[in-house]
Structure formats: structure tokens, C-alpha cells
Amino acid sequence: MTRGTLWLVFGGAVAAAVVYVAAPVLAARELVAAAEAGDAAGLERRVDFPAFRESLKDELNARLMREMRDSDDRAGRALAMLFGPALVSGVVDAFVTPEAIAVMVREGEPPAPDLDGAAAAPATPEPDAAADDRVRQSYGFRDLNTFTVTLTRQDRPETPVVLLMQRRGLIDWKLAGIDLPETPDETPAAAGQAPPAAS
Questions:
Q1: Does the residue 2 lie in any domain?
Q2: Cβ neighbours of residue 20 closer than 8 Å, sequence gap 6 or more
Q3: Cβ 124 vs Cβ 103: under 8 Å
Q4: Burial, 102: exposed, middle or buried (Cβ in 10 Å; 0-12, 13-18, 19+)?
Q5: Which domain holds residue 125?
Q6: How is residue 112 annotated by DSSP?
Q7: Which of 36, 81, 136, 164 lies at 20 to 30 Å from 127 by C-alpha?
Q8: Domain-embedded: residue 42
């Protein structure tokens, strides 16, 4: 193999690495920009709504089961286990819209569908000049096909919302999942445990 061929191979590998790292970052920034602009069409391009709904259902069902497991109401536990998943499914299907995604990203608030009543997308808040300073976005790879966008509110830094963007094809990435923050009752401090020491 000639030196010129080696340089071509090396250059191609570097270009592929740059594209691999840059593509999810650009997709994440497009998602945030579309949310901040209220661009429903832009959000449609960057969100895999069926996958996101399934992820949110899994998170809410797991939270519901934890709450019922710790409850002393045995009848309530049985009813929740029987009807809870169907209730969560119907509410999430109605709740997750481009408008709800936009508010979640702008405000750094986890989706909060009303499991006790009719589902409704959150009201769009009035424009706030300090909104960009209130929520911080950070990015990182979880694995080769999952890229995280962590939304951290300055007033609640201990409960970030983690959005999961997944690869679709070679260089396309879409929002396809979410890790909900722990509720206050699930944190170590609430359980009577000391929080981990800062490193």
C-alpha cells in the first residue's frame, strides 16, 4: 500500500469519526432550537414519537409500581397493577405531542400527564428573557447508538431530565426515549441515607 493510499485511508477514518461525533450533537441542537422556537415541523423531524411514547410509558409504569409496592393499601396495589398500565398507555398517547415536547425541553420539566383525569398538553408559558439561563443542556454518548441530552434546571439541579436520542440509519438521530428523574421519596436523603460525597 502506497503512502498516498495510507493517507487517504487515514483521512477517511478521521472524517468518519468527525461525522460520528458531530451528527448527534447537531441533531440535539436542532431539537432544542425547534423546541425553543415552537417549531412543530422541526420537532416532528427530530422525534420518534412512537418510541418516545413507549419509553415514557415504561418509566411511568415503573414509577407507579414502585409507589404501589411501598403502599399499605393492598386493594389499591392490586387495582393499580391491574389497570395502571392501560391507564398510563391511554394518557401518554394523548399527552405526547410536539407542543408537550417543546415545553419539556424549554422548561427542563419531566412530562407530567394527569393520570387522575383527562390528559392535556402543558400550557405554553409566557416568554421569559431568563429562560435560556434557567435550563442547561449537556450532551454525551451512553453507547454507540444512544446519545443523551441532559436538561438541568438551576433551581432543581438534583433532578435532571435525560433525553435519549438514538441512531436511525448511519448519521440520523432522533429523540426516542427518556429517563425520568427520581421523585423526592426515591432519593437517598428522603430514604434516610446520606447523599454521596462530592468528588
A1: no
A2: 171
A3: yes
A4: buried
A5: 18-186
A6: -
A7: 164
A8: yes
